[in-house]
Amino acid sequence: MDYKKLIEAAVKAKENSYSPYSKFRVGAAVLTEGGSVYIGANIENASYGATVCAERSAVIRAVMEGEKKIKAIAIAGDTEEYIYPCGICRQVLAEFAGDDAEVICTRKNGEYRAIKLGDMLPDAFRGGK
Length: 129
Prior knowledge:
The chain has one domain (3-120): Cytidine Deaminase, domain 2 (3-Layer(aba) Sandwich). It is 29% helix and 27% strand. The protein has helices at 3-14, 54-64, 87-96, 117-120; strands at residues 26-32, 37-41, 70-77, 97-106, 112-116. The model has no long low-confidence stretch (mean pLDDT 96).
C-alpha cells in the first residue's frame, strides 16, 4: 500500500477543516477495499457535542457512496506529535474495518506510523458481527 498518497490526501483534506473554536485542524483519507479514497475534515460546532471528527466524516462519505469495507485511513494534523483517532472514531472505524486495517498516524513534519486497528482498539465491540 502506498501510504504517501493516502497521507497527501489527508493533508489536503485538512484545508477544508472548519475549526474556529479549537484551531485544531485535522484531515483524514480513507482507502476502501474497492480501492477508492474518501476524504474528510473535522467540522466544529458552537455546540461542541455536535462536532464531527475528520475520521468520521471520511468514513461517512465512503459509506454514503456504498463502500462499507475500509482497508486503511490516514490522519493528518498540525501537531509535532503523532495524531491518533479519538475513541469514538476508533469505534466507528471498527464498524467498517477489520482488526488488520491500517491506521496511519502522521506528524506535521511528514513522519508517520502505521498501526493495525486491532492493536489500537483490541477486542472492539462489533455488535455480534
